[in-house]
# Entry
Amino acid sequence: MYKIPASTLFIGQNLVFVPECHSTNTLLLEMLPRPSEGTIVVTSNQTAGRGQRGNTWVVEPGKNLTFSLLLKPTFLKPIDQFFLTILCSLAVAETLTELEPKGNFSIKWPNDILADNKKICGMLIENSINQSSIQQSIAGIGLNINQQQFSVDTATSLKLVSGKEHDLNSILNLLLENLEKRYLQLRNEKHKELKAEYLKRMFGKDEMKNFLVEENKVKGIIRDVDDSGRLMVEIDGAVKSFNNKEISFIL
Ligand code: BTN
# Structure
């Protein structure tokens, strides 16, 4: 069903397809240390898909892209690990834009991809770090492609955006090319460029939005992301930084 991309150097060149598994992130983790950098594990159905903040990730079997990518960014310092989030988010957002140029795709910090105001993709990036470097990173990506019904009305898919059915394999190949392009950019230390492009695609940047902070509803304006990936929000004229657990959007 899935074919190895012809046009990448290493990302996706070792492609492991399993029709069903618990979670591709967990399966790839269980396969370590054998798989080489760039290995991807793809499935048609996860029985225990994992999301951020301990949530589950549940989608209809066979309709979406569900895979995990193994990177070994030993050149990256632990303090720079947010760049892995930046590269994956950018790769997904630009893949969707290439497929649907009229679509309005943005990155909702830290790494949800939105189509208009609805979530089209979620990521779970799990890093294994020692004192001086990142030993490996498992980037799990769930991208909604042909599913048309969701249990929440805050979710959407490429088919709902474009009105067309899409070929999962072609989209996977394009996404792997974009992931590799961005990863090579990171390896070449193009941190400034990557961050600038991330900020350009960021949902709500420089706009007044509603947030939840310590269970209080507050109004604020996203101004930046600091080097460790904290969201910098201007609230009542002062800029404060937040980690993922400290702030959430009210869409
Ligand atoms: C989120 O938005 O909460 C993150 C969802 C991440 C889902 C993907 S699907 C492939 C990979 N395997 C998992 O168990 N989770 C990620």
Q: What stands out?
A: The chain has a mean pLDDT of 96. The longest helix spans residues 168-187. The radius of gyration is 18 Å. Residues 23-25, 46, 49-52, 55, 57, 66-68, 112, 122-124, 140-142 surround biotin (CB under 6 Å).
